[in-house]
Design goal:
It is a single chain. The protein is elongated and about 100 Å long. It has a 6-stranded mixed beta sheet with strand order 4-1-5-8-6-7. The protein has a two-stranded antiparallel sheet with strand order 2-3. It folds into 3 domains: 64 residues, PGBD-like superfamily/PGBD (Muramoyl-pentapeptide Carboxypeptidase, domain 1), CATH 1.10.101.10; 64 residues, Muramoyl-pentapeptide Carboxypeptidase, domain 1; 208 residues, Zn-dependent exopeptidases (Aminopeptidase). It is built from 14 helices and 8 strands. Helix 8 crosses helix 13 and helix 10 packs antiparallel against helix 13. By secondary structure, the chain is an alpha/beta fold. The structure holds zinc ion (ZN). Zinc ion binds next to loops. GO terms for molecular function: N-acetylmuramoyl-L-alanine amidase activity. It comes from Micromonospora taraxaci. This is N-acetylmuramoyl-L-alanine amidase.
């Protein structure tokens, strides 16, 4: 095409001037919006310079392509990984810069929506609880607007966790919960002989996990256990955490029983990620509090409270994660409860209630012990929240 040059008039000039105006390279719309005047030429030169194009003050094919790409403001169109002709534009560059700020690996902000950008977007989506399709549409834009601005430098994992919770709504349908029965395989965990019987932590927590799986699945939750009843080997905690990450879990619950040389030691405790100097997973802490309070209220186990730990299991998981020590197998009192299947069902109800409350907006939360989890399915089906 013949370059559009100083002195030209017409709709093409109007379009060029509109883009230059939106880039704030032109002072203001002149009286002749369709005229390639001196201001326009200066603006074209400034634009060419900023994009590394040869600076001649005319709009040839190359400058036109750059201007065309520059007109896209982030959010104005859905971005995705197109092959073989990738999308390019100023919006892609803005997106890449924002992702880079948040610590995602997009490579260089080159304005091209390539596979690396798509992967970074998918990772972001997964972490805020969106479908990780790698394309940037209105939902992803909303999530970016809400957290992108607040956060510069470093990976704002805890913020994103809260955002994912807020955003995903009160329904449990479609959530993925990973339940981690501790130990297993060659590692039975706590073992306590009881007459002719022999109770093991690995078996009891697996039974708890299966019951929990059944109850959550009935509420429309996708559930995955980290191990079966009798695995060949004991999966290390690192692998359990990575498994939950790879499944894109919304919630991670690890189940253990405690033990102590002193048979008087008893009660339930729940752990979430956090350090001694106050760094904490806010959502993990909230989930831990809910699980702990619901179990205490519904089972009468002694309250050994919630605690912050930096265990790998809690540190490496990317979703709200808790480890519950549901009583002491070494305590005759706790053990008498734990070996009773009806008691284990009450523990399971408590955990289901806690998971459900996790997805209530704080202001619509309900008192501990009050949520009738048998109603959950109807509530979920009706698409409403219990008040
Ligand atoms: Zn254990």
């Amino acid at each position: 095409m013949r370059p559009i040059r100083p002195g030209d008039r017409g709709p093409a000039v109007t379009e060029i001037r509109t883009i230059l105006l939106s880039l704030e390279l032109l002072p203001a719309a002149g009286t002749h919006a369709d005229e390639f005047d001196l201001d326009t030429e200066r603006a074209v030169r400034a634009f060419q310079q900023s994009r590394g194009l040869s600076v001649d003050g005319r709009v040839g094919a190359e400058t036109w392509r750059a201007l065309d790409a520059a007109r896209w403001r982030l959010g104005a169109r859905t971005l995705y990984h197109a092959v073989p002709e990738p999308l390019t534009g100023e919006d892609v560059r803005s997106l890449q810069e924002r992702l880079l700020e948040m610590g995602y690996d997009v490579g260089r902000a080159d304005s091209i929506y390539g596979i690396r950008t798509a992967r970074a977007v998918a990772q972001f989506q997964r972490e805020v609880g969106l479908t990780p399709d790698g394309s940037c549409g209105p939902h992803t834009m909303n999530a970016l607007r809400r957290i992108g601005r607040k956060v510069v430098g470093g990976r704002p994992q805890w913020l994103r966790e809260s955002d994912a919770i807020r955003q995903s709504g009160p329904a449990l349908v479609g959530k993925t919960v990973v339940i981690d029965p501790g130990h297993g395989g060659t590692d039975p965990g706590m073992v306590v002989p009881d007459g002719s019987l022999r109770w093991t932590e690995a078996d009891l927590v697996h039974d708890l996990a299966s019951r929990l799986e059944g109850r959550l699945a009935a509420s429309g939750v996708r559930v995955q256990l980290t191990r079966g009843p009798s695995p060949d080997r004991c999966l290390p905690d690192t692998d359990r955490a990575l498994l939950a990450n790879s499944l894109g879990a919304d919630v991670f619950i690890s189940l253990h029983l405690d033990g102590h040389a002193n048979p008087d030691a008893e009660g339930v405790a729940t752990y979430h990620y956090g350090t001694d100097n106050g760094v904490t997973s806010a959502t993990g802490e909230r989930l831990a509090g809910l699980v702990q309070r619901e179990i205490v209220a519904r089972t009468g186990l002694r309250d050994c409270r919630t605690h912050a730990k930096t265990w790998e299991l809690l540190r490496l998981t990317r979703m709200p994660a808790v480890r519950v020590e549901v009583g002491y197998l070494t305590s005759p009192t706790d053990r008498a409860h734990l070996v009773d299947p009806r008691f284990r069902d009450r523990v399971v109800e408590a955990i289901v209630a806690a998971v459900q409350r996790m997805y209530y907006p704080i202001e619509r939360d309900v008192p501990t012990g009050s949520l009738d989890v048998s109603e959950l399915r109807a509530v979920v089906a009706a698409g409403t929240v219990i008040d």
